[in-house]
Each structure stands twice: as structure tokens, then as C-alpha cells.
Amino acid sequence: MEDRANKRTTIDRRKQPTPGLSRYTFLGRRKMIRRKSDSQRGGYIDRYSSTLFFFLVTIIGLNVLDALFTLMILDLKGWEANPVVNSVISLYGTKFWVWKFSIVSVSLVP
Q1: pLDDT tens-digit map of 62-107
Q2: 8 Å CB contact between 85 and 96
Q3: Alpha-carbon distance 80 to 104, whole Å?
Q4: Are 71 and 79 within 8 A, CB to CB?
Q5: Predicted TM-score (pTM) above 0.90
Q6: How far apart are CA 78 and CA 61, in angstroms?
Q7: Dist. CA 85–CA 90, nearest whole Å
């Protein structure tokens, strides 16, 4: 029985890095890097601080408001001053917000 316990065939999870989005993102326990050696090696944390979460949600909320205000201004016969967004509006019409939301949201994923 003892010989069987020494011959483990499971894969060691520590040999590969934890992905950015995993079950540990919301349920993990590690909130800060504890050892200086881990920090120098490029350690990771499971959960980000509530302050960072607040700022990420705020940026996404402001992005949604920006898209809504842009749609309201366009409905009132206004125009978009940003040439990149203006070209996306001319290509996709009122569905430009999907493109805008996707660009900002992808850039916020830690």
C-alpha cells in the first residue's frame, strides 16, 4: 500500500501558471504576494483588491454611459468628433457600441 502512495500519476498543477480567468479569480484566497522572492520571480495573486475592482467597474460604467450619450447626441442630429469612432459609426450604424464596449472591456481584463 505504501508503494502505491509513492507512485502518484496526477499532474502537478504548480508546473504551469494559473490562467488569468479561472475559478480562483473569485474564490481564491491569495490577495497579496507574501514573499520577496515570489515578487522578484513574478508571483501572482488569486484575487485583486476591492479598490482595483471598483475602478474597473467604474471604467466600464463610464464607457457604457459614453456610448449612450453618443447615441443620444446622434439622435439629436449631433456628430462624432473622434474620427476613428466616426468611421466605426459609418460602418456599423447604431451598433457601434458593441465595438466600443469590446475594445475597452478587453483592455481591462487583468
Answers
A1: 999 999 999 999 999 998 898 988 898 889 888 888 888 888 888 8
A2: yes
A3: 18
A4: no
A5: no
A6: 23
A7: 9
